[in-house]
From TrEMBL:
Chain coiled-coil ranges: none
SMART domains per record: IQ, MYSc
Family: Belongs to the TRAFAC class myosin-kinesin ATPase superfamily. Myosin family.
Protein name: Unconventional myosin-Ib
Segments of this protein annotated with the region Actin-binding: 624-646
PANTHER family: MYOSIN, UNCONVENTIONAL MYOSIN-IB
Gene Ontology cellular component list: brush border; cytoplasm; microvillus; myosin complex; plasma membrane
Lineage summary: Eukaryota, Metazoa, Chordata, Craniata, Vertebrata
A UniProt-annotated Pfam family: Myosin_TH1
Domain TH1 residue range list: 953-1137
Gene3D superfamilies: 1.10.10.820, 1.20.5.190, 1.20.58.530, 6.20.240.20, Kinesin motor domain, Myosin VI head, motor domain, U50 subdomain
């Protein structure tokens, strides 16, 4: 859309040269389209497309150069008034929009003659073209000193890559000339073939699809000549290296190398020309119609030389590419080791040998890296074998990382060649060519982050165009017809929110311990994002998708601004982890190939970093944030690319497809905003400052408010009131013709003022010369008098310094004598005080010793008296027991006699069975009645133990005859544990010495095991200090073997404070009693039964690791004592005799 006002018809009558509207097919400027709706918009695009008009203008600017009839500013060489405004920082831009429809064929509209046609021309003088926008951006940067950026967006296959190359070629053609400038321009242009070869590939939608995002900052000097550039790349689709969808190819460079390299080079790289020899190359689309891979390879080699690659560097790059190709041919076969574990072996080592010869790696080192994986944790290293599936994963991960790092190295190497060599202030033009919005049949992690990037680009387009335009009119209280538009910030927040965004939850799932799968990630999304209006999942809590058959269970769907996209969750976790085994990176670092070694710095053993590298999602999110921040500092210009059909064919225009793109690109909203607005706006202060010389009342100084001055100025110039409006802080001018009139009047007035300034300047210059001569005579006289005074001053100064030195020496010696005297006095006082303090200390020591002896004597007498008292009490209790026993015997005899009499009666009545049951009940009742509460508790515990361990634990029969005592250590009586007793306020149920098994090596340490009503405590046996305290509510399970050993594990609740170091593993001689009492106490306090697991193999949690405790039969060196040994990070063996 080219910006012309509502008075276009009137202005057309004044035109002398060809107008934008003359001989135009359809409407080139969408602002002028009538009526404006979706149907007319599409019809206009189709009409122009059918007549080979592929460009359309959709301008969204605050200030534009409108074509005047005389075109005075372009034909006479007079300064553009808008350039004058911009130099003073008084122009605000929203940005230009050019719509480009991909013709899928070559058109004769990019010749050098076309470049000259659009060079230094106003934006509206000729038909819409990408050169018009490029020229506008370049001149704004050169003349207005304002950084620019050109954002090229659209779907995959819409022509974004070609558009970026056209922009760069136009800028290179119109900027300055010279040997150095031409070299810089050539290097900038030739960086494209290199990056396209390594970063582009054929897809089902595009034969030259960018599989990475590229942002190039082209740097210019103050004259507008290029100094250099900086390229940033975003997320190469490295998964394409090892696998391509049906109908697509791997990256171009593989096919170009095999097609265009000489036989000598192929032999040196150990390659063959046949594509079918390499597993990583897709065969069904190896050849592309209209693409000459051999010619492109020669172009890439030539471009690498121009950019600045040395011959050995280019050779090293091709060797890495060859190594990646040959990695795909390595295949593995399964083998079983003696210990029963599966491992993988390489089938044919010839491919491995050739790779090692190319890269300079020891063959045994690389072979071991493909078969084993070393895991390091703190000071421990554990080496595990890789099965066939893991070996293939390691091979593909190495290929992907090797190619991805090679691509990043290429970008950095190109940046070294094209970067600006001077440190002067630079102007910058950024060109963004990044992947378009992608909706495939199978969308995975790559499509997810690509579409996320497009969401961010759409968001910045909304913020810098539609939203900002409307908000400024509302802010300035200018009459405005509100236009509703969709703000996609809610979708960006769904993806990138730091707490509950999809990327944050994916990172959290990848980093958490335990089993992590794509299904667990989807479950997490279903829990957190179920209520989000743009998130859809079959398994979410939202019932409206439960019966949606178009939504599979293993997928989720996001309503993007461009439409709904269904993502397959399979592979999200692995692709986000992007894990490369440390053994492979260390093997690569050991290569004698300088380039490969530099690509894997983390493989250096001296720089091992155990910290987990950032995930692919978090890296891409940070890169996108940096890109958005960079774009917001520049004036944006937009090229909105549209794909006319999905068949990549010329002369086909699919209206439904184009309609979909128009909607999500927001083009209609953009046109409506432009039609409702003003062409120019400016704050009152700079406006008055620029044009105040046109009115006598405002020149040279205006005393009142700036707005009042502007009103006086416009009234004096008799400008029609319908041509402008007054806002809160700015004046808004509807038609640029009004601004041109102001500039013409200002120019004439400036000529008059220039004549006056020349006259005043000549008089000032003569007076200044006279005053300078006079001042020079005064200066010469002053300098001579200064010299004489300085010489006399130096003589007086030298004499004063000698006198000062003598006086200072005398004062210093006097102070020294005083200080020495004070020091001797202080030393004497210190000595006397030390002797006195010593005497006092010895006297206090003797007193304390005497008190200690007295206290010891009292303790001995007290202990003797307590012993005598205890013995008397013992005698009394024994006598009492004997009397009770005699009474019990007599009572039992009488009861027996009584029972026998009753028995004879019932026997005579044929009731012998009932008599027997009755007698047995009476005897049992009598026996129970004799039980004390303590004895009842013991038998209840015995009964509980029988239910828990009978016929389950081999140790149980030996525990039946052993009474349950509980307090084996007698903490209350032993003075050694007085400190421990004082620290525990609850009743102690068990006090026993157990062996605690060390989590790291399986060795045992003695600990005091204490069980109270609410807690389980472990204390040091020697000092009595409490080491650990676990609430019973945090104990979830007790595990033990079924064999004749005393080992048992106490499992703790995950996430509790007590479980920070993991579960406890003990060994005790009273296992049955301790487990029974722990079970009953937990049941009493928590009202829940404690789970008792009896198994010869169970898992325990040691810090972050799950360790298997396995009980085996074996001959023991220590006789019948079981032994415990830590085998590796995952296994702890207990040998039981």
């Amino acid at each position: 859309m080219q910006e012309l006002g509502k008075e276009q018809d009137t202005m057309a009558k004044m035109e002398v040269k060809t107008s934008l509207l003359d001989n135009m097919i359809g409407v080139g400027d969408m602002v002028l389209l009538e009526p404006l709706n979706e149907e007319t918009f599409i019809n206009n695009l189709k009409k122009r497309f059918d007549h080979n008009e592929i460009y359309h203008s959709a301008v969204q600017r605050h200030l534009k150069r409108v074509q005047l009839g005389t075109s005075a500013f372009s034909s006479k060489g007079i300064d553009d008034p808008y350039v004058l405004l911009a130099r003073q920082g008084r122009v605000t831009y929203i940005g230009s929009v050019v719509i480009s429809v991909n013709p899928y064929r070559s058109l004769p509209i990019y010749s050098p003659e076309k470049v000259e046609d659009y060079r230094n021309r106003n934006f509206y003088e000729l038909s819409p073209h990408i050169f018009a926008l490029s020229d506008e951006a370049y001149r704004s940067l050169r003349d207005q000193d304002k950084d620019q950026c050109i954002l090229i967006t659209g779907e995959s296959g819409a022509g974004k890559t070609e558009a970026s190359k056209l922009v760069m070629s136009y800028v290179a053609a119109v900027c300055g000339k010279g040997a150095e400038v031409n070299q810089v321009k050539e290097q900038l242009l030739q960086s494209n073939p290199v990056l396209e070869a390594f970063g582009n590939a054929k897809t089902v939608r595009n034969d030259n699809s960018s599989r990475f995002g590229k942002y190039m900052d082209i740097e210019f000097d103050f004259k507008g000549d290029p100094l250099g550039g900086v390229i940033s790349n975003y997320l190469l689709e490295k998964s394409r290296v090892v696998k391509q969808p049906r109908g697509e190819r791997n990256f171009h460079v593989f096919y170009q190398l095999l097609s265009g390299a000489s036989e000598e080079l192929l032999s040196k790289l150990k390659l063959e020309r046949d594509f079918s020899r390499y597993n990583y190359l897709s065969l069904d689309s190896a050849k592309v119609n209209g693409v000459d891979d051999a010619a492109n390879f020669r172009t890439v080699r030539n471009a690498m030389q121009i950019v600045g690659f040395m011959d050995h560097e280019a050779e090293s790059v091709l060797e890495v590419v060859a190594a990646v190709l040959k990695l795909g041919n390595i295949e593995f076969k399964p083998e079983s080791r003696v210990n029963g574990l599966d491992e993988s072996k390489i089938k044919d080592k010839n491919e491995l040998k050739e790779i090692c010869e190319l890269t300079g790696i020891d063959q045994s080192v690389l072979e071991r890296a493909f078969s084993f994986r070393t895991v390091e944790a703190k000071q421990e290293k554990v080496s595990t074998t890789l099965n066939v599936a893991q070996a293939y994963y390691a091979r593909d991960a190495l290929a992907k990382n090797l190619y991805s790092r090679l691509f990043s190295w290429l970008v950095n190497r190109i940046n070294e060649s094209i970067k600006a060599q001077t440190k002067v202030r630079k102007k910058v033009m950024g060109v963004l060519d990044i992947y378009g919005f992608e909706i495939f049949e199978d969308n995975s992690f790559e499509q997810f982050i690509i579409n996320y990037c497009n969401e961010k680009l759409q968001q910045i387009f909304i913020e810098l165009t539609l939203k900002e335009e409307q908000e400024e009119y509302i802010r300035e209280d200018i009459e405005w017809t509100h236009i509703d538009y969709f703000n996609n910030a809610i979708i960006c927040d769904l993806i990138e929110n730091n707490t509950n965004g999809i990327l944050a939850m994916l990172d959290e799932e990848c980093l958490r311990p335990g089993t992590v799968t794509d299904e667990t990630f989807l479950e997490k999304l279903n829990q957190v994002c179920a209520t989000h209006q743009h998130f859809e999942s079959r398994m979410s809590k939202c019932s409206r998708f439960l019966n949606d058959t178009s939504l599979p269970h293993s997928c989720f769907r996001i309503q993007h601004y461009a439409g709904k996209v269904l993502y397959q969750v399979e592979g999200f976790v692995d692709k986000n982890n992007d894990l490369l085994y440390r053994d492979l990176s260390q093997a690569m670092w050991k290569a004698s190939h300088a380039l490969i070694k530099s690509l894997f710095p983390e493989g250096n053993p001296a720089k091992i970093n155990l910290k987990r590298p950032p995930t692919a999602g978090s890296q891409f999110k940070a890169s996108v944030a940096t890109l958005m921040k960079n774009l917001q500092t520049k004036n944006p210009n937009y090229i909105r690319c549209i794909k006319p059909n999905d068949k990549k064919a010329a002369h086909i225009f699919t209206e439904a497809l184009v309609c979909h793109q128009i909607r999500y690109l927001g083009l209609l909203e953009n046109v409506r905003v432009r039609r409702a607005g003003y062409a120019f706006r400016q704050a009152y202060e700079p406006c008055l400052e620029r044009y105040k010389m046109l009115c006598k009342q405002t020149w040279p100084h205006w005393k009142g408010p700036a707005r009042a001055g502007v009103e006086v100025l416009f009234n004096e110039l008799e400008i029609p009131v319908e041509e402008y409006s007054f806002g809160r802080s700015k004046i808004f001018i509807r038609n640029p013709r009004t601004l041109f009139k102001l500039e013409d009047l200002r120019k004439q007035r400036l000529e008059d003022l220039a004549t006056l300034i020349q006259k005043i300047y000549r008089g000032w210059k003569c007076r200044t010369h006279f005053l300078l001569m006079k001042k020079s005579q005064i200066v010469i006289a002053a300098w001579y008098r200064r010299y004489a005074q300085q010489k006399r001053y130096q003589q007086i100064k030298s004499s004063a310094l000698v006198i000062q030195s003598y006086i200072r020496g005398w004062k210093a010696r006097k102070i020294l004598r005083e200080l020495k005297h004070q020091k001797r006095c202080k030393e004497a006082a210190t000595t006397i005080a030390a002797y006195w303090h010593g005497t006092q200390a010895r006297r206090e020591l003797r007193r304390l010793k005497e008190e200690a002896r007295n206290k010891h004597a009292i303790a001995v007498i007290w202990a003797y008296w307590l012993g005598s008292k205890a013995r008397r009490e013992l005698k009394r209790l024994k006598e009492e027991a004997r009397r009770k026993h005699a009474v019990a015997v007599i009572w039992a005899y009488w009861l027996g006699l009584k029972v026998r009499r009753e028995y004879r009666k019932f026997f005579r009545a044929n009731a012998g069975k009932k008599i027997y049951e009755f007698t047995l009940q009476r005897i049992c009742k009598k026996y129970r009645d004799q039980f004390t509460d303590q004895k009842k508790l013991i038998y209840e515990e015995k009964l509980e133990a029988s239910e828990l361990f009978k016929d389950k634990k081999a140790l149980y029969p030996s525990s039946v005859g052993q009474p349950f005592q509980g307090a084996y250590l007698e903490i209350n009586k032993n003075p050694k544990y007085k400190k421990l007793k004082d620290a525990i306020e609850e009743k102690i149920i068990i006090a026993e010495v157990v062996n605690k098994i060390n989590r790291a090596n399986g060795k045992s340490t003695s600990r005091i095991f204490l069980l109270t009503n609410n807690n389980l405590l472990l204390a040091d046996q020697k000092s009595g200090q409490i080491k650990s305290e676990v609430p019973l509510v945090d104990v979830t399970k007790v595990s033990m073997s079924s064999q004749n050993d005393g080992f048992f594990a106490v499992h703790l609740k995950e996430g509790s404070e007590a479980a920070s170091k993991g579960d406890f593993l003990f060994s005790s001689d009273h296992l049955i009693e301790m487990a029974t009492k722990l079970y009953r106490t937990t049941l009493s306090q928590t009202k829940q039964k404690l789970n008792i697991e009896i198994s010869d193999e169970f898992l325990v949690q040691f810090r972050q690791d799950k360790v298997c405790v396995k009980f085996i039969q074996g001959n023991q060196k220590n006789g019948s004592v079981p032994t415990c040994k830590r085998k590796n990070n995952r296994l702890l063996e207990v040998a039981v005799p």
